[in-house]
Design brief:
3 domains, mainly beta, RNA Polymerase Alpha Subunit, Chain A, domain 2, 4 helices, 23 strands, rod-shaped, YbbR-like protein
Length: 270
């Protein structure tokens, strides 16, 4: 350790050179975008109207400003309830001046988070697509989740990416879990039609009254377009008096009623 005075002198000389270079570094200006972090929100709330990034204009020594400067932008929403207007704050290293922040102030709204299931709808040409799962979990700001009507995707393969949609279009603030659905079947689309229900009694009996008088059926469009009425008969058979219970329907292939048709009828001997 007899050379420690020389070592100390060398260290001080190096430090002086470093400070000298730092002081002589050119001062530059630079514009860059930085992610905007939100702090101060409770776990069951979310902020609407907050941009993902802000634009910063910085001034300072080139070594500190060029490259990836250690700056961060954040929005403190502590205590924000409902509509808010808060200033964007920027943390920058000493010696770096923040000349401009755009936007400098953010206006938005704090909302509670909500979760609920949404049906999956896949848009396809000429077919009806069945998916697994048939429902997904939607989570996001209450106003958007309540407005959502379906998780919609395009039929472009065996897996379909989903987006929450409301009456006015997509809802980007709503996240879906899972975000994709698997196509398990592509079937001919079915259409609905309400048709008159007709009871035709066999020879020797006449129909006095019956209900219901109509039935709703589903089937291919081209088959339903040519169907004008549906003939029915009591499951228990025709007999004089009142008969109640399921009705059996005579329908073309591919057409079926929406649920079981329960009815009653009164017959009399001619």
């Amino acid at each position: 350790m007899r050379d420690w005075p020389a070592l100390l002198l060398s260290f001080l000389a190096a430090l002086a050179v470093w400070y000298s270079l730092k002081e002589r570094a050119p001062v530059v200006e630079r514009a860059l975008s930085a992610p905007l972090q939100v702090v101060g929100l409770e776990g069951d709330r979310v902020a609407e109207g907050v941009p993902r990034e802000v634009l910063l204009r910085l001034r300072g020594p080139a070594p500190l400003v060029e490259g990836t400067p250690p700056v961060s932008a954040y929005l403190d929403l502590s205590g924000a309830e409902g509509a808010f207007s808060r200033e964007v704050r920027v943390a920058a290293p000493r010696g770096v001046e923040v000349l401009e922040v755009r936007p400098a102030r953010v206006e938005g709204r704090g909302e509670a988070l909500l979760s609920r299931p949404l049906p999956v709808e896949v848009l396809a040409q000429g077919v009806w697509v069945r998916t697994e799962p048939a429902f997904v979990e939607a989570r996001g700001p209450r106003s958007q989740v309540e407005a959502a009507v379906a998780a919609v995707g395009l039929d472009q393969g065996e897996e379909v990416a989903l987006t929450a949609f409301g009456p006015e279009g997509p809802l980007p603030a709503v996240t879906l879990s899972p975000p994709k659905a698997r196509v398990v079947a592509r079937e001919e689309p079915l259409f609905r039609k309400v048709l008159p229900l007709v009871l035709k009694a066999p020879e020797g009996l006449e129909v006095l009254d019956y209900a219901p008088k109509e039935v709703e059926v589903v089937g291919p469009r081209e088959v339903l377009e040519g169907l004008e009425e549906v003939e029915a008969r009591p499951q228990e058979g025709f007999r004089p008096g009142e008969v109640a219970g399921p009705f059996l329907l005579t329908l073309p292939p591919g057409v079926r009623p929406l649920g079981q048709v329960l009815g009653r009828a009164r017959f009399a001997l001619k």
